[in-house]
Amino acid sequence: MRVGFMVGILGGILLAHAGYATIQYRGVLKIVEEEFSRPPMNVVVELLLGLAFCIWAALAAPAKFRSIHPDSEENRIVSLPSNLDFMIFNHRGKVFPCNAEYKLKK
């Protein structure tokens, strides 16, 4: 996981540097009064490399997926916190009319 995270940071730095290099290149073109047609090839290569690093990091860095099946052994029972001071059950939802057809059927 650590290597994927570092590769992601490197990819982000490469993308930021490619953007900065493109802005500088456009500034130079304005000084020499030429029209901007496309960024230089080294910036395009840097963009593609940064994109590849970011995609690789996005696929390699996340943790293990957890099961969403209700019968799975990995699922744990979620309980209420022991401190109920911040639990609010009096909210604006009581303003809406309660239709009998929307209630859960038992």
TrEMBL record:
Belongs to the membrane magnesium transporter (TC 1.A.67) family. This is Membrane magnesium transporter. Its main location: endoplasmic reticulum. Component of the ER membrane protein complex (EMC). GO terms for molecular function: inorganic cation transmembrane transporter activity. One of its GO terms (cellular component) is Golgi apparatus. PANTHER family: ER MEMBRANE PROTEIN COMPLEX SUBUNIT 5, PTHR21181. It comes from Ensete ventricosum.
